[in-house]
Amino acid sequence: MATPPAPQSPEQPAAPGPFDASVAPSEPAKKKGGLGRKILGIVLAIAVVLFWRLGLPYLTGEAPVHAEAGDCVVVTGPENDPEVESKGCTEKVPNLFKVVKVVDNTFDLDKCEGVADVALAQQLETDKFVLCMEPVKN
User: Which residue of 4, 35, 119, 121 shows the fewest CB atoms closer than 10 Å?
Assistant: First the structure.
């Protein structure tokens, strides 16, 4: 005759028995914030790309000055890569020009013919324009 198993005391853990689905270990807990972190990463990556393409030239001074008629600018640097900086029209600086006309969406310097003595084409990404200017007499 078989002897019945001895009763277990509360200090002893139960011996592992055959597999029972009702007591199977639960699935690992899903990480909280996983989707939120992915979305945040994507948004951050897009912001960095936009800053690099659009904002950085403005911070480094490499963006063209999109002056309006009546504004004054100083033009320096080589002819094939001029640098343009906004200035007050009353400042006593060399190479000061007053913008007479701005022609958007073109590089055609002939658009300034008969309007101004100096024409300067500028571009940043898709923004292209021509500044028609006259020298300011100091």
Answer: 4
